Fold this sequence. Notes:
Elements: E1 12-14, H1 17-22, H2 26-38, E2 41-42, H3 43-50, H4 54-66, E3 71-73, E4 86-88, E5 94-96, H5 98-101, H6 106-128, H7 153-172
Amino acid sequence: MANKPTRRIRPYYIREPRQLRALVSPLRQEVLDGVADIGPCTIADLAVLLGRTPTALYRHVKRLEKVDLLFRVEPHSVSVGRPAAVLDVPGRPLFIHQGALAGKADSAVRAHLLAMLRNAGRGYLRALNSNDAVRWGKRRNLWHARWKGRLNEEELESVTAHLSELIAMLERGSGTDRRERRLHEVSFVLAPSVSRAPSRAPKRAPQR
């Protein structure tokens, strides 16, 4: 019996345009998030988590392997027959390095953002009609909101720290005993408010 592969817990930064382009697919985002949560795992394990068939995931796994966002580790055990491939991510948590991608993959950044928001909306709507949704109180788990406000530099640093702690909290719960924890998903967008360019007034016809 082989030892269970060790989870990689060092942060990993997605820096290459080819990697971000691979994540334009909402399902590939789910695959990557799933392996980050329960991995190292087999495709069969992942299919159970995502409610998909293994066949539906193979080509997406291959694409993520091709861009070094998934890789294979030693199988859990040695038994008769060919052992199932065991997948893991290159690190945890996974971050997109916007600085490294700036000016190199703007179209991929836009497409990835829209795919992420589609996934968030689908997850929210699935939960909305379920018995698992708690819509109010200290243990609320269903929430969508949009706010605009003015922040100074110190407050912006505080916002970043709170969001980073939220990510760390979610990451601490991955790969642990699931009897006391439920899987949740959080998506957020933070952006400076940029004024739209004023539309040009129509040119007047020359007077005769």
